[in-house]
Amino acid sequence: MVTERESEHAKQLAQPSLDQEAAAACRWRSAHYLRRLRCAFWCCGCLGAAVTVLGITVLALALTLFKVVKDPELTINSLSLAGSRFAVANGAVDDGVLSIFLFNFTFEADVSIKNPDVASFRFRSSATTFF
């Protein structure tokens, strides 16, 4: 029968088994782990590059195309009365006479418009009616 001393001697001659640290070190250096690490690195790199390109594109559009449109500045240089007419119309109402006063004034205005935006606009002569 094998004594306890002989079994210890047999264990010492046998190759030592890998302990937990050696197994962990092997796992860290495995090809599968390195492939996954490289894939994660590329994925994060591509995602970061896409976010950077998207941010630069949005910034460029915000500074050029998507500016807030400003209102044009309207200045009246001169205003003159070109003509006027006055008329009174009488109408009959049940209790008496109704008088209607009609006024017609024609003004000429010299107007200048300053456009602070980059885009231009054109206009022709126009007429404005006030009631």
What are the SSEs and their pairings?
Elements: H1 4-13, H2 20-28, H3 31-64, E1 73-93, E2 96-114
Antiparallel strand pairs: 1-2
Please describe what this structure looks like.
Keywords: Membrane, Transmembrane, Transmembrane helix. It comes from Zingiber officinale (Ginger). The chain crosses the membrane at residues 39-66. This protein starts with a helix and ends in a 17-residue tail after the last strand. The protein has a two-stranded antiparallel sheet. The model has no long low-confidence stretch (mean pLDDT 77). The chain is rod-shaped. The protein is 40% helix and 31% strand. It has 131 residues and is an alpha+beta fold. The protein has 3 helices and 2 strands, in the order H-H-H-E-E.
- The total of beta strands comes to 2
Strand content: 25-35%
Q: What's the Cα radius of gyration?
A: 46 Å
> Roughly what is the average pLDDT, rounded to an integer?
77
Distance between the termini: 126 Å
Class derived from helix and strand content: alpha+beta
Number of helices: 3
Percent range for helical residues? 40-55%
How would a textbook summarize the main sheet?
A: 2 strands, antiparallel
Shape: rod-shaped
How would you write the strand order of the largest sheet? 1-2
Order of helices and strands: HHHEE
Low-confidence stretches: none
Transmembrane segments: 39-66
Protein name: Late embryogenesis abundant protein LEA-2 subgroup domain-containing protein
Keywords: Membrane, Transmembrane, Transmembrane helix
Organism: Zingiber officinale
